[in-house]
Amino acid sequence: MPEIQTAKIGETAVAPQAANMGMSLSQDAWRRLRKNRVAMLSMGTLIAICVLAFLTPLLPLQAPDHAQTELQYEEPTATPLWVANRPLDTDEIARTPELVEKMEKELAALKKRYEQAQTSQDELANVRKELRRKEAEIQDTIHAPFRKLGYPPMGLLSRSMVRARFALFGNWSVNSLCGRDLLGRDLLSRLFWGARISLIVGLVATIVSLVIGVNYGAISGYCGGWIDDAMMRFVDVLYSVPFIFVVIFLLTILGEESIADELAYWGINRITVFFLVVGAIYWLTMSRVVRGQVISLKHELFVESARSLGASQSRIVFLHLLPNLMSVVLVYLTLTIPRVMLFEAFLSFLGLGVEPPEVSWGLLANEGIKVISPVKIYWWLILFPSLALGTTLLALNFLGDGVRDALDPRLRDA
Amino acid sequence: MIGFMFKRLVWMAVTLLVVYTVSFFLMRSVPGGPFDRERVLEPEIMQNIKKRYNLDKPLYQQYLLELGKVVQGDLGYSYKINDYTVNEVIREGLPISVALGSLALVFATTLGLIAGVTSAVLRGTWSDALLMLIATLGIALPNFVIAGICIILFVFLIPIFPAAGWGDFNQLVLPAFCLGAPYAAYVARIARTSMLDVLSQDHIRTAKAKGLGPSRVILVHALRGALLPVVSFLGPAVAGILTGSLVVEQIFAIPGLGSHFVQAALQKDYTLAMGLVLLYTVLLYMMNWFVDLSYALLDPRVELG
Amino acid sequence: MQFITYYPSAASYMSDTSRSLIAALLFACLLLGSVWATLGGGLPPADFTVINESEIKSVDPALISGQPEGRIAYAIFEGLVRNDPKTLEPIPGVAARWEISENRLTYTFYLRNDARWSNGEPVTAHDFAYSWRRFLDPRTAAEYAYQAWYIKNAHNYSLGGSGIEPDDPVEVELNLSPDAKNTLRGKILHGKLVRILPRNDDERDFIVEIGGKQITYRPTDDSEAADYDPPQGVAWCRQVLLDFREVGIEVLDDLTLQVTLENPTPYFLGLLGFYPLFPVNQRCLETYGAPDWTKSRNIVTNGAYTIAFRRIRDRIRLVKNKYYWNRENVRLEVVDVLAVESLTTALNLYLTGKADWISNVPPPAMRELIREDPPRNDLNPAPYLSSYYYLINTLREPLNDVRIRRALSMALDREEITSSLLPAGEPVSLSLVPPGIEGYQMQTADAENIEEARRLFAEAGYPEGHGFPRLEILTNTQETHLAIAELIRKQWQRALGITVKTRNEEWGAYQTSLRQGKYDIARRGWISDYTDPNTFLDMFISHSEQNSTGWSNAKYDQLVENARQEVDPEKRFRLLEKAERILLDELPLIPIYTYVSKNMVKPYVRGFYNNVQDEHYIWAMWIDHSTEGSNEFMRSGP
């Protein structure tokens, strides 16, 4: 079986070389990056923000969606430092699995009925509606104890973190250090919960665009010829599409009740649409850059040798070329995340961002801006969200500059 | 050259067709339409309206008929504002957006250049760091936050500008500044980098060695060098300002295309929204084209293909 | 958000000097361009500036609804009667006087002979007959058409093909060429309906006897009529309607109009002062067609003002109509009506002196303004005849269960809503008809009772909210409505254990969703069109255009109908009270609170009164900078 053998040879012979190259490159870059104080500070900040955002459910914060209208627009206050909130109903949580199990059974029965139903369209639609209702009911039952306290819908991990938080701190939480909003909700906790959404939005949407962009660019660059021509021409066409407009157009159309219901059934909410759409926009630049890199790498020695050893096309692209694109990708990543986060803020401003009870920084900043009036400025509602958003984006920008400088000394600022 | 123009024109048509097709089918996939009145209509009237708008025909025929109208430049009536056609809305809004955009561009370049050059000359000092921090902040903060802060500062605390509206030059300054701010920040960063590049080059050192005063060196030689990359940034900046006016026009209640589009999209005024998407596609395309053309004019090495 | 791609020094091999030159030139062009563009927009200031909350849909009085549109319509058009700006009692408008018959069914209006259109032509009884016919024409599809259904046979006329029966006298409107102005009417043939032949769900043929001959008419669109020959034995037409001569609108002579009503309607005169029944100029409409006739260069109006120009989403500039009969008493020459969507921006404009009257104040600012000490001399909130409530879509399960609807109402803590979100002192409400109508006994729904609400939920099969589907509250996009929906969402979740979501849409989209019944629960507000409980109660009869809840109750319909025919005002109110009782027991709506007017009016503005409909007419206002003490606005009590 000569083919397998050659492949193996290719792997042992070429991969280490490539890996070595990548390694030495990144080690070198890392050393340079470590010397850049601003970049390191930014990185530390970002890591701290990410860790805090991840641990939010565990922290002794008030529930982000707990309205206390009697405390409306309370200014930031630190005395007393600890306040008591409603306790978590552990009995109800304990009862939940039983209820859910029962409903799962009903759901299974319904599904069976749905599969067997071959009667009229009307009945099929009816059963489908029931199915959806049941599924929603199961979700709602699971979330109910948390929802009552004012938590947004959470995954399994976050739910157990919230339970751990109540076990650790009881119903004590930090007072509203950042003030309260119109409904008397604690801004501090909303900022923490908003961080989760904002960061996730930035990351996921960027990764989606990365995956599309890198693959598209790599394939285009590697294939060359008319394929390359056609693929790049397509990118050119898309470059001239005013995407902001298309996104708004799309989001309003998808917000139509019937369409939104259908999408919700498939687990697609506005955020998911946002991921997909933003991912679909921001890959354009990436694909161009990657294509350029691939074309120049294509004729490098290690690629030529892999090819002469008979490695398959896809193997060359994905195993040998892509790892060498790391530097470009990294720079791109740090520059795109802030842009995506800004875009989310922009959509929140238009009322097309996340939907309550979820919160994001963009939404919070917008809520602050909306209550500016010459009569009274609730400064905390503008200051803190802007600070959170500004710090994160500033850090990302500085880190991006640093990474670029470190990876490509030729582009360095003098 | 002519070949290049022609090719670009063809591609613009292709782009427009793609945008049109996608928007058309999206539009038709949602319930509602021109007959979507607040009142339940008599069946005959409903039929009449459907016939008038060709809604009784199969989808592909509707598509072709509508396409024919758009090609002739007729973008139809607004669904929600009964008294206006889409063309009229564009005719009113475009000059306003252009005025706002050009002033924003002027702000972006002047403020950006001044900040960038100052920062480069004072390299390594606290002022340099502060200027660059402000510049990065300008890129990092959302437009509407900057606008909000500007309103607090320049409308209420130091009342020198009106809060909103459209009509005289005063009302244009603040929104143009907010719109131009992020681009000023970019320009500042670019100007600083290229200025430092130039300052370290041989002929500047020679000039200095010849005993020319520092201000003359900076103004005549170095500044000229720093301008060039800034000029090449203007293309993308124009495109950005064009689309960025969405927010600023909303906040300052300026009746430009941006606020028309946002309102149209939010109120599901699909004909108006689609007309504006098409218009923006053309504008964006023209801008990219213009940038390429100016590169070719400025740099003989660039070939138009 | 910004699409910035920086091409690193896409270098540079033209000579440096020429490139700097190009850059400088470009720069100068930009600066000049922006200055030029704004100078073009420079306007001489107006005498008076009003902020309208949104861009209006149209200036055609037949097609509009809503307060922002109304402000314009009242300024540029005038009906047979006007409403007194203070009391809203009918006062002479185009009609100088009128007579009402003994049985209160026939009104004879004598028009003043000096009423003029803005082109100088006299306003005649024919103008009203033309405008009202157009308003009722099903092709106009006027939303408010039901405001004219009090006129004899008007309802049947406006129903078009559905309003006629065999043997009725009918009129057949023939097709015109597709190029004809869309405001023109086709040729009218008068005849007698013989039979209606249904063809399918949407289409019908009408067999009409005209001059002893039976002809089958098939309604169609003009272009189809022009392009295709009708099938054998069928003739094309635009529509077949009841003969307009059957409708109780009769022109006795140029200046005398007689109107016959279906029932004695005590508030009919008030309706005539309401904009849907304002006249439009036939010649203007037919010369330019719709919507071109509404353009400022074409429009002909008969009110105190006419439109100088209109810039979409910016402003409408009104100038005094120099032919207006009462021009001596119109004191503001030039008025700007600005379309500003954001309440905060509007307040900013007011406080910086760029506007003289704003009709709404954002709640966070109101909280502070109302507490100011000494009290402001330009803010005087007062309740008016209005109601803020949530509609329930009773066609959707499980909202079709009255127990659920009652429980939802009982689970609300209305005090919390008004005290925390509505700082102008809005009173909570448990009824649809607000207090303030003399002689009408207030009816109320069950007060807050969470225990009972939970019990009802359990009884309906949803103990502790288990199994209850997700509810969605639809509101239009405005900060106050969003905040109220958020709070109600939390109250329901807390009290009943159910999952509630909120959705918001812009005004136009929201109205469409309402009408098409695409909602579970929707926020709605209603301001009385005239001072009578009927303005609220007739919205919920089965076939009302405003009833988008799907709720229908024969007994309720009967009571409202009986009240309509009742001559004795006492008995009438008792009937309406009974009707409201049914409504509040069945609860297709959840009353929440009563609106309070939130106008801010500069102290130098005179002739502005708080009244029961929060309706203020620009023609009645004037500016007097020498005003000392409080103006009419601050003096007028709630």
TrEMBL record, chain A:
Coiled-coil residue windows: 93-144
Membrane topology: Multi-pass membrane protein
Main location: membrane
Top-level division of the source organism's lineage: Bacteria
Listed PROSITE patterns: ABC_TM1 (PS50928)
Membrane spanning residue stretches: 38-59, 191-216, 237-255, 267-285, 316-335, 377-400
Compartment(s): Cell inner membrane; Cell membrane
Example of a GO cellular component annotation carried by this entry: plasma membrane
GO BP annotation list: peptide transport; protein transport; transmembrane transport
Limits of the ABC transmembrane type-1 domain: 195-400
The entry's keywords: Cell inner membrane, Cell membrane, Coiled coil, Membrane, Peptide transport, Protein transport, Transmembrane, Transmembrane helix, Transport
Pfam families: BPD_transp_1, OppC_N
Family listed: Belongs to the binding-protein-dependent transport system permease family. OppBC subfamily.
Name by which UniProt lists this protein: Oligopeptide transport system permease protein OppC
Lineage: Bacteria, Pseudomonadati, Planctomycetota, Planctomycetia, Pirellulales
Gene: dppC
From TrEMBL, chain B:
SUPFAM superfamilies for this protein: MetI-like (SSF161098)
Source organism, top-level taxon: Bacteria
This protein's UniProt keywords: Cell membrane, Membrane, Transmembrane, Transmembrane helix, Transport
Subcellular location: Cell membrane
GO aspect biological process, one term: transmembrane transport
Keyword Transport in annotation: yes
Cellular-component GO terms for this entry: plasma membrane
Predominant subcellular localization, coarse grouping: membrane
Membrane topology, record value: Multi-pass membrane protein
Pfam family, one: BPD_transp_1_N
Transmembrane segment boundaries: 9-27, 96-122, 129-160, 172-191, 237-258, 270-291
Domain ABC transmembrane type-1: 94-291
PANTHER family registered for this protein in UniProt: INNER MEMBRANE ABC TRANSPORTER, OLIGOPEPTIDE TRANSPORT SYSTEM PERMEASE PROTEIN OPPB
Family: Belongs to the binding-protein-dependent transport system permease family.
Protein name: Dipeptide transport system permease protein DppB
From TrEMBL, chain C:
Solute-binding protein family domain span: 89-178, 243-547
MF terms (GO), sorted A to Z: peptide transmembrane transporter activity
Gene3D superfamilies in the cross-refs: Dipeptide-binding Protein, Domain 1, Dipeptide-binding Protein, Domain 3, Periplasmic binding protein-like II
Record field: transmembrane: none
GO biological process, one term: peptide transport
InterPro entries the record matches: Peptide/Ni-bd, SBP_5, SBP_5_dom
Cellular component GO terms, alphabetical: ATP-binding cassette (ABC) transporter complex; outer membrane-bounded periplasmic space
PANTHER family on file: ABC TRANSPORTER SUBSTRATE-BINDING PROTEIN, PERIPLASMIC BINDING COMPONENT OF ABC TRANSPORTER
Protein's UniProt name: Periplasmic oligopeptide-binding protein
